[in-house]
Amino acid sequence: MVWSAPSRIISLDLCMDWILAHHADPAQVAALSPMLKRYPIQWIEDGWPIHDGTLEQVVELQPDLVLAGQYSALLLRERLRSLGYRVEVMPLPSTLEQVEAYERRLLDLIGRDPALAATAPPPTTLDERAPRLLLLDANAIGTGRETFEHRILEQAGWRNYLQTPGLVRLDLEQIVSDPPDAILFAAPEHQALANRFAEHPVLRRAVPADHWLSTDNWRWQCPGPWTWDLIRQLNQWLD
């Protein structure tokens, strides 16, 4: 079936909100998800319509395209499909190569040229002597290998300080005895008890203040064209 460019798009989750707000004409969007109200972001201005997540309101808005992530709003999207609404599920990328395909598909779905998708910066040759970066999250959790974040670090030319796969519970004594060359702590704007590990004075002494790096926390939450900005920023810190 050939679809015309949609004019009443609805998003069912936060990552869809972001990529849609980044690329769509606001006049095309009937409503973004209620998640945007719970997790506002500075670059999405006030004024975008937001639905309440109920079947009744989504049907009332009469969308011609509903966008959902792989694991979001399962019952709602299937109910909408059973009622004849067009629902497109977009799994989030798990590799850097998939980010470009993800963005191209979104552009195609909303009736824009897929060629407008941003391209990845060229990979940096990973040197075994490259500095080791610890990607530190809240609650003393670090990000290890075989993760999307690990691929970002390597693409930017860093070595991951953690060699075990997945999310890792960090040990302060081990880090102090063998400190990383730098720590990236993408902290939320609002401080919480979950951030106390990063504020520990022993850890702060182990890694000099000018080797604590910071990026916008939101850029790590959902893959998208902003992923390339992260890679460029991380690479610049190597210079």
Write up what this structure looks like.
By secondary structure, the chain is of the alpha/beta class. Helices cover 31% and strands 14% of the residues. It has nine helices and ten strands. It has helices at residues 14-23, 35-38, 55-60, 74-82, 96-109, 148-155, 172-177, 201-206, 226-236; strands at residues 9-11, 29-31, 65-68, 87-89, 132-137, 141-143, 159-160, 167-169, 182-185, 212-213. The strands form two sheets. Strands 5, 6, 7, 8, 9 and 10 form a six-stranded mixed sheet that branches. Strands 2-1-3-4 form a four-stranded parallel sheet, sandwiched between helices. Helix 1 (14-23) links the parallel strand 1 and strand 2. The longest helix has 14 residues, at 96-109. The radius of gyration is 20 Å and the shape is elongated.
